[in-house]
UniProtKB/TrEMBL annotation:
PANTHER family: RESPONSE REGULATORY DOMAIN-CONTAINING PROTEIN (PTHR44591:SF3), STRESS RESPONSE REGULATOR PROTEIN 1 (PTHR44591)
SUPFAM superfamilies associated with the record: CheY-like
Isomerase as UniProt keyword: no
Protein name according to UniProt: Response regulator
Keywords: Phosphoprotein
InterPro entries: Bact_response_regulator (IPR050595), CheY-like_superfamily (IPR011006), Sig_transdc_resp-reg_receiver (IPR001789)
Species for this entry: Pelomonas caseinilytica
Annotated positions of the 4-aspartylphosphate modification: 55
SMART domains according to UniProt: REC
Length: 125
């Protein structure tokens, strides 16, 4: 089974560490963290990504607007993208739809539910 690459755009170190711990529970999957929109654009321009996870509040760009920029930088339209935020579920759902995301996860993340969803987006599609 090939290694699946997950790009998580997240500027908070604690959230990035939590996601790293969750992704490590899924064999054949590696997480790369971009702390800014600029780092994410650079990453997708140079490497294939299997799943994009994007925080809403980033230091240099609004996360809900970043997806279009990443698609323009080379992220395939076939790559699923999820908005990950601590905002209310109602607001997050709206922002995800408006930003062209395939779905969303709300923080705090439930480890078991996040793993199941990760599996869905990486394999079950």
């Amino acid at each position: 089974m090939p290694t699946r690459t997950v790009l998580y755009v997240e500027d908070d170190a604690v959230n990035a560490m939590l996601m790293q711990g969750i992704v490590e529970l899924r064999p054949g999957c590696e997480l790369h963290v971009a702390r800014t929109g600029a780092e994410a654009r650079e990453f997708v321009a140079g490497r294939p990504v299997d799943l994009l996870l994007c925080d809403l509040r980033l230091p240099d760009v609004a996360g809900d607007a970043l997806l279009a920029e990443l698609r323009a930088a080379g992220l395939s339209p076939a790559v699923p993208a999820l908005l990950v935020t601590a905002e209310s579920e109602e607001l997050t759902a709206q922002l995800a739809r408006d930003g062209g995301f395939d779905g969303y996860w709300t923080k705090p993340l439930d480890v078991a539910a996040t793993l199941a969803s990760l599996e869905h987006w990486l394999v079950g599609r």
